[in-house]
Amino acid sequence: MARDGTPSDIAISKPSGDSTLDSSALRALQRIDTFAPLPDGYAGQYITVQYYFDPKGQ
After folding, report:
1. Helix (H, G, I), strand (E, B), or coil: what is residue 26?
2. CA–CA distance from 30 to each of 2, 6, 8, 41, 42 (Å)?
3. What whole-number distance in Å separates Cα of residue 23 and Cα of residue 15?
4. Structural domain boundaries of the chain?
5. How much is the pLDDT for 57?
6. Terminal-residue alpha carbon distance, the chain
7. What are the CA-CA distances from residue 24 to residues 5, 7, 9, 56, 57 (Å)?
8. What confidence tens digit (pLDDT) does each residue in 2-43 have?
């Protein structure tokens, strides 16, 4: 995520084995326009964020 909150380089790091589920999760994240900007106190230009999808809800 860029300093201004823009997501980039969205990818599946560990496939579920179900390509339809993986595609749906990927599309959900690609549809996010922006997150809140990084805090002023954060010195970096970007931050790496991981999301976990649990289709079983366990």
Report:
1. helix
2. 14, 11, 9, 27, 24
3. 10
4. 1-58
5. 60
6. 28
7. 22, 17, 16, 15, 16
8. 999 999 899 998 898 899 999 998 998 889 888 899 999 999
